[in-house]
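Page 47, continued from p. 46.
Same chain as before, 567 aa.
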Amino acid sequence: MLRPARIALLGLPAIVLGSLLTACNGSGSSTSTSAASFSPATCQGGTLYVLDQSKEPTGYDPAELYTSGGGAIPRLFFRTLTTRQSVPGTAGTKVVPDLATDTGEPSADATVWTYHLKPGLKFADGSAITSADIKYGVERSFSSQLAGGPPYLRDWLVGGADYQGPYGADPDLPSITTPDADTIVFHLRKSEGDFPYLAAETQFAPVPKAKDTGKNYNTDPVSSGPYTIASFTKGQSLDLVRNKYWSRSTDSQRLACPDKIDISLGLSPAVINQRLSASIGNDADAITTDTTLDPATLAKIAGNPALKKRTASGTFAQTTYLAFNLTKKPFDNQLVREAFSYAVDRTAVVNAEGGSQLARPATTFNPTSLTAAYHPYDYFPAGATGDPAKAKQLLAQAGYPHGLTVSLAYDNATNAADATALQQAYAKAGITLQLNGIDDSDFETQVGSTTTQPALTLTSWGADWPSGAPFLTPIFDGREIVKGGGNFNLAQYNDPAVNAQIDKINKITDYATAQQQWGDLDAQLGKLALTVPLYTGVDQVLYGSHVKNTYVDQWRGWYDIASVSVK
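Result:
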């Protein structure tokens, strides 16, 4: 998804841009684990404090959340059919059963997926969790009243495009069946080998129909996880206490160590980092789920070994890049696109982000943190600071011997420094970038509409789960072009052969095989210079001195709040 820089990991909109974080064991990123001893057998007790910027104005309705494979805080009170494996590094990209007994039983062509529920599952009110509750939870996510979650099911499920949710004249979605209380079956209109990863989104959290309060459900949802909401004040606080009906015997992926979790919302980044640095009183038992360190604070930490030990680092599976609109001149000419690829100064852009501690240059669209789908390539080697001479040569061949002038669109709230760095770098190649900073509130609308989309855009794309499918399909599948708005295929690239290749890979249910082919496809598309990859963000975050078990996973790129301890 397109995302803004340095934002919360609670509930994300579908079109925004920037830089988050992910663990990258094996791909250059470091992870951090608190030095204090930790044992999952004795970690229960105490209160964990969370200091966040987010005001979470929409609350916590599972249908409205966009949590990228389990999210941060929602994972504490919502369980789903599957979830990510709660371990550090690359192994954290693996999808594992949660409410279900396995990650799903696919049909031969991966168009039908069957799940069976574990025995003994209960809501926080003591009632049994059934397949009907999961079906109802998924159906609610189709309602226009509860918009905000991932859009995949509307496209994937048979009849999903026309279904309006359970509150209308036709409340049932026939492509989801529940043969018995422990079985749920999904019928897809096309092959989707990544369905187990989608089943980790909060859309798949069970919702008891009798307790559904529609738009008001977001303030007090019925918990299926280890904690339940004791109180919630929008924009200010969220307090969680234990769900006495949750048991580790049915949930191997959440340790649920603290007895209580007190979350403060709407704090400033400076206040959060100052409090975590000082680590006094309750702040010694505190973490943040959405605030990274700025360059100045990082410089101070570098000279303070004690603070350095309390810093976790990672890189989210996201690429910031230049997007060409191939329907507009001069980017209908591949020679021009190649000239832009050669002229780019990635060092300047990395420095604009705060230096190598906060960003790493990228020459591939699939980032290194998509390990299995990452194939290294650099077809237009610009070196560290660009090759303006090669760019000028290509521009002359393309009919622009005296250079050219183009407008660069970007989100003024998040990418202004990057845009300025690019403007200065491209000037060396005779390319004049006219900076078009767009207000954050308008950026989504302008860039996502094929009628108003600029010729050149600075933006980012992040994977909803660790696979090449959600990374490449929305950007390069011609059938994903949305004319009315909400378009992610900014190149408006439509090659029937590539579309067919995407369909072929989607039929593969073996993860390693599929990722190898997604990597092959990325390398194939890279030769066309459809984008100029710039960097992947590296984020660093502090935690309190009493917090333990702060490993970083490689799915979301943050330490796992469901596993940290303060005891």
